[in-house]
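Hey, quick one: can you model this chain's 3D structure?
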Amino acid sequence: MNKRSAWQPLGKPSTPAAPNVHLTLSPFGRLARTHALATAGDGAIALALAGSIFFNVSPSAARTSIALYLLLTIAPFAVVTPLIGPLIDRTEGGRRGMLIGTIAGRAVLAFLMVRHIESLLLFPLAFGMLVLQKGYAVAKSAMVPRLVASDDELVEANSKLALLSAIAGMAGIAVASLFAFLGGPPWATALAAVIYVVGVAQAFTVPKVVIAASAPEAVELEEVRGAMIRISAIAMSLQRAFIGFVTFLLAFNIRGGDVGIDLVPEGSAVGVGAALALGRDVVSDPPPPFWHFGVVALAAGSGALVGARLAPVLRARIKEEWILLGSLLLSTTSAATAAIVGGITGAFFIALGVSSAVAGGKLAFDSVVQRDAPDANYGRWFAKFEARFQLAWVIGAFFPVLINFKGDTGVKIGYTVVAVAGAFGSLAYFVLTRPRFQHRLRRLAPVARDRAAAPAATVDLDPTGVVVDPSPDPTITLPGPSVGEHTSVMPVAEPSADDIEVTSPTLPFAPPGEQPAPSWREMAPPVVTSVDGVEVDDPSSA
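Sure thing. Here's the predicted structure for all 542 residues.
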């Protein structure tokens, strides 16, 4: 028997070598990690400031300094961004360098805050932190479109970043609260500094990209300056102004309080009277409990989380304009509710409503830009729009700093201001986005997009006076009325030199044979008399 055909025990089956798989993080994933660390550090700084001298100084004494700092905050967005922004966009890694610089700057300021958390130097440090946070937001908005796989993923990517920002910010506040409980505000500030340092290391992993290598073309400018994008940008600027206004309104409210001194116990009135007679200031305005700040911070973070989560779901079902209108109405109703309720409950409602409206409205605005400007460089324009929105935030913050909304009544007046402005903005946005109004705006548009993109055509005349298209394949324009803006043309073959035969018509009052042959410039143009052919009328019959 052949040994090869006999039964043999089966050996152990060989297994193919496992492929060498390396888990790699996408460019957008690297930016998302950087953004999570940056926002966590911002949350820790916010918690540290809440327990520091920043909220213990008299609001009346601090208003002038805060107004000056806010004025300095405007400078980067009103002056530097329009001049330096295009240069940064054309440089490879320019926006990434801005991303790294703004996080590293916050790390340095956070380390300085550890030492000066209880001194007046904290104020310029805190507002330097604010400027760097706003600059970081502009750089991040510019980089997102360049780090996603396609334009279809753009709105989804911004939604993920908004969700991540809300979660990381609340996590930073929670961990910093534990550090503040153990060692006070300096420990929370030190935690923020460490988080920023890790964020800088992560930011170096983000790829270098060129945002916009060249200036915008005519088609891109026309699309971005369209009516719907302009109107939506104004609505979003109003929303950012609301969040800046509410932030400082609640900050002064949490700091100021309206508790006063309890004169019910026996002897309190006498003691207060004696102190006043001696010139002692005992009628102070103690701040509300510290947990009020926690409630407002929790409401703001939860609102941003809800808005970022609901906006993509709503976008799949309704138009972006309705989402923006709904965000304006949400700010209006939450402010009106806060004005009616007042107290910590009112602060909770307005913080929750306005933060939800801003988060959802921003995603809807990004979708409007992507829909109405398909030829635009989104990185360039998202950065410009974000700079305008940050400027609107600072302008909105000016009002509660310059105007003293004192006590619960003053805060309710501030809530009413937001409600009235939101109602007016909602009505204006509803009217401006109606199809009838949009039709009128389109009729007033000076140039259509296709006409702006097409090069200017030159018109030549051939020897017979017929209009000829100067393209490689000549065409003859037929005379007659045109339909709309289009003219019918008939292609003709290019004649060769052998096919040209010059004939001269008989001139009047001259015997045959004695006529000189006229040049081709003296020949009369052909007259079209029928669709079957071309006939030349006798000049003598004229």
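One thing worth noting: The beta strands are 460-461, 467-468, 475-477, 489-491.
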